[in-house]
Amino acid sequence: MSEKIIIVLKFVFAALLIPLVVGTVLALQGEISQFDGALQRALYTGTLVYVVMKFFVYDLDAVYKFGQSIVGFCFQFLKPLMNFAPYVIPVYTIIGIVAYAIIRAMGALGGKEPLGLILIAAIAFTFSMHIILTAQDLYKKDSIPGKPNYFFAMSLIFIVDVFFMAILMGLAGKGFSFVSFFQKLGNASGHIYMAVFKQLFGV
């Protein structure tokens, strides 16, 4: 009986997270729209290249699993986080952002040079790989009808991942404001929650 209650609660919490997921996507798109056209194209190109590779060439699952093992090793002394951290921390994307920030701080690029665009594309590529393969892995592991564990965990991981990446991108250089991202996230998700509340209760 308790297991059924937990399953129902996971469905409920997953549903409650949907406005936050949508708000996160809208906030991210809002900040990306502030980028220079060349940077936007680099981001979308990196994302598209991985999606094409995933479905038509090779999904880089071995590379993804290697990154997970690195994160798992770093958190091996923190048992509660050891199993969860590899899904939340996109190690290759973090490396890309750190490299971009360091090179930018050294004055080697202003963001529009080929090296800057390649790094931005690589960041989008690796983040897409992380999100898609994390979703694939969690989906396969959830054998319960309706996939309650998958929907709840993936919604939470997506929100945390994008939130985390927004902080790093805000620190990496100009063009992305974490404060603005957070405001857009709050406004978008707040509007959705309010609209649903009014629809359900006729307020």
Number of helices: 9
Q: Please count the beta strands (DSSP E, at least 2 residues each).
A: 0
Mean pLDDT: 83
- Helix content bin: over 70%
Q: Quick one: biggest sheet?
A: none
Low-confidence stretches: none
Please identify the structural class as seen in this structure. mainly alpha
Instruction: Report the end-to-end length measured between terminal Cα atoms.
Output: 35 Å
Beta-strand proportion: under 5%
- Listing every helix as H and every strand as E from the N terminus to the C terminus, the arrangement reads HHHHHHHHH
Cα Rg: 18 Å
Q: Which geometry do the CA atoms define?
A: globular
Notes on the protein architecture:
This protein is mainly α. Helix content is 81%, strand content 0%. It is built from nine helices and no strands. The mean pLDDT is 83.
Features:
single chain; 203 residues; 81% helix; 9 helices
Put the structure in a nutshell.
It contains nine helices and no strands. The protein is 81% helix and 0% strand.
How are the elements arranged and paired?
Elements: H1 2-32, H2 37-56, H3 61-74, H4 79-82, H5 85-88, H6 91-105, H7 114-141, H8 148-172, H9 178-201
Helix pairs in contact: 1-8, 1-9, 2-7, 6-7, 6-8, 7-8, 8-9
